[in-house]
């Protein structure tokens, strides 16, 4: 089992191959403990094995780096991996 209390979380935004934003935090700074969030979720929801609880990163993007079409947002969680998504206008 992965220990989630001290995971390092990083967020970056790239625009035209230039990094416009970078932020870093830790799951240790969450307002509530993961165990408390899980307990609340399980009160009235069936949660199958292998489910993932996503809480957000807690990293606030500056107004200057507000997302635009073509930006690529990357979130990295130590011990878990990296997720990158492009921004599009729909």
Features of this protein?
90 residues; mainly beta; four-stranded antiparallel β-sheet; 1 helix; 4 strands
Q: Radius of gyration in whole Å, from Cα?
A: 15 Å
List the total number of helices. 1
Read across the widest sheet, the strand sequence of neighbours is: 2-1-3-4
Main sheet record: 4 strands, antiparallel
Low-confidence stretches: none
Average of per-residue pLDDT values = 86
Instruction: Indicate the percent of residues in helices.
Output: 10-25%
How are the SSEs ordered, and which strands pair?
Elements: E1 8-15, E2 18-26, H1 34-42, E3 72-77, E4 81-86
Antiparallel strand pairs: 1-2, 1-3, 3-4
Brief account:
With 90 residues, the chain is mostly beta strands. It contains 1 helix and 4 strands; from the N terminus they run ββαββ. The chain is elongated, with a radius of gyration of 15 Å.
Would you mind describing this structure in some detail?
This protein is mainly β and 90 residues long. The protein is built from 1 helix and 4 strands. It has one helix spanning 34-42, and strands at 8-15, 18-26, 72-77, 81-86. A 4-stranded antiparallel beta sheet has the order 2-1-3-4, with no helix packed on it. It is elongated.
């Amino acid at each position: 089992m992965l220990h989630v209390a001290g995971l390092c979380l990083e967020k970056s935004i790239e625009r035209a191959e230039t990094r416009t934003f970078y932020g870093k935090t830790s799951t240790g700074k969450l307002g509530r403990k993961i165990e408390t969030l899980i307990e609340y979720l399980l009160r009235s929801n069936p949660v199958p094995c292998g489910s993932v609880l996503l809480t957000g990163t807690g990293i606030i993007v500056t107004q200057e780096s507000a997302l635009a079409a073509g930006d690529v947002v990357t979130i990295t969680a130590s011990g878990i991996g990296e997720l990158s998504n492009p921004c599009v206008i729909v």
